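Troubleshooting entry. The earlier prediction with flavin-adenine dinucleotide gave an output that would not parse, so I re-checked the input for stray whitespace and re-submitted. Clean input:
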Amino acid sequence: MTGIARRRFDCLVIGAGGAGLRAALQLAQAEVSVAVISKVYPTRSHTVAAQGGINAALGNVRPDNWHWHMYDTVKGGDYLGDQDAIEYMCRAAPRLVVELEHYGVPFTRLENGRIYQRPFGGQSQNFGGEQAARTCAAADRTGHALLHSLYQQNLRAKTHFFDECFVLDLLVDQEGYVLGAFALEIETGEPIVFEAKATLLATGGSARLYRTTTNALINTGDGMAMVLRAGLPLEDMEFVQFHPTGIAGIGILISEGVRGEGGYLVNSRGERFMERYAPKALDLASRDVVSRAIYTEVKEGRGCGPNKDHVLLKLDHLGPEIIKSRLPGIRESAMIFAQVDPIEGPIPVYPTAHYTMGGIPTDRFGRVVAPVRHGPEEAVPGLYAVGECACVSVHGANRLGGNSLLDIVVFGRAAANHILEHLGEYRYHRPLPTGAAEPALARLERWAQSGPGESVDEVREALRLAMEQYCGVFRTQDVLEEGIRQVEALVQRMERARLKDQSKVFNTARVEALELENLMEIALATVYSAAARKESRGAHSRLDYPKRDDVGWLKHTLYYRDERRIDFKPVRTKPMTVDAFPPRERTY
Ligand SMILES: Cc1cc2nc3c(=O)[nH]c(=O)nc-3n(C[C@H](O)[C@H](O)[C@H](O)COP(=O)(O)OP(=O)(O)OC[C@H]3O[C@@H](n4cnc5c(N)ncnc54)[C@H](O)[C@@H]3O)c2cc1C
């Protein structure tokens, strides 16, 4: 590693979305030397795009408590979520949302001055048939408000930022300790080694894997792929959330907040078709249920438009006042991308890839955990993960809207607290073995080969199309096996890919090639895990195994990169203090 720049910190946080920033803030306030690395300027992280809000049982609009929130989350996740982590999250929610308000998040207000809350999908109707209203919102720009406030608080706490710096891989020693990361400074094209006593992955999701998606260009699952390359597994990768209301043909998100405010879906006959699929919750059933309903309406010929390929989201009846004050960003997106003003007409919508339920296996302290030599699970020393890249698992087989912004602040804080303890025990940096950065350097140098070859852009688009066609909303064994063949063939094509531009300074083509390598790992994890799970649960819907099977499949999937090995681990069905919610039939 001679000649490579080296930096040392107590803690390295990879990712500057809400998860990374909430953790970094806790650490910086405790006067730990903490560095946050982000491949984009921090406030461009995908958290900025979150619209609808963050869940907490504040009970500001209708009576509520954390126990109901817990029940809704367990049921929404189709009983695959770990109930100790879910209890922890739902109990912490009210305090952490108020804390966000104190950090400066400008929540929308009720007339009495309290935080405004709207109903969201999957929230129970416990109140004389009325639905809970649990999602705290700053108009329809909640993530924007949250991310900017957390960034400003970090600047005040003197967190070190390394912006536009791309992490390639973790640095690990012979005994399996994680000692930091190897990165590329995008501006100069120079490599840089970060050493740390604790490394926290907060690199976000991977829904760029699909052709139609709500996700930002940067959501390529980099942290998850790093973990696979370090020989560790990913958990529950078959569970990909398709959001029911992306703008048709484009995928840009129209928040569930629209239906929370009273918007609803109609088919070409003008029918409010959710009455047939979820008689009680209607348009506010959980996302997997609504996405399947839209898909079925279109497949059975009741789609709208000249190609009958979408349905309509109607909200003009809400009136201009509500639309302008509570959904201004949605109105703007609809006008720009669908050429419709929702005050006057409905928005054409269709399901779009949105969220990665699976990810890096962790416990509720944010520690990355993995089975050691096929034995019981243990914490990987020095490594933590939180946010969308992690699988705690609080979302189980299907995440409820508004629970991810909550997940990132709750577990960002919890992981930081555990890191503080860890730093108390590990007072010195362990020596970085010579050669620790060799595999990452080799990955970088592989892209210096020139000459004719495949184009990175073409391979990426082929991958995204294959995932949409062979690992989408509805699945069968044949379709998934064809998906495996297609993705494996693309892995081969990728080996022949070359970069035309070999320059160093701001070479975004090189970054995109490295991101595609990561997406390829995530694609393999997703199709292999999906082909292994022979039941339907949450977002994983198998036409050949239409029922949930709690006897055979109430367990988490683990996928390893080597030999594409699949393993399983039990669901933590015991909460921390309350009685468990045993699996029941899930209806809305
Ligand atoms: C359009 C949209 C709307 C949403 N609305 C809501 C909502 O209303 N409510 C809700 O609860 N959830 C919502 N979600 C989900 C939620 O916003 C995300 O799950 C959550 O914000 C993820 O936060 P994060 O901190 O884990 O990751 P992100 O915010 O995605 O941040 C990832 C960070 O990692 C960095 N990074 C990644 N790879 C590398 C690398 N190789 N090197 C260096 N840095 C790297 C990035 O630069 C970035 O800083 C929405 C999601 C989308 C896409």
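This one parsed fine. The mean pLDDT is 95.
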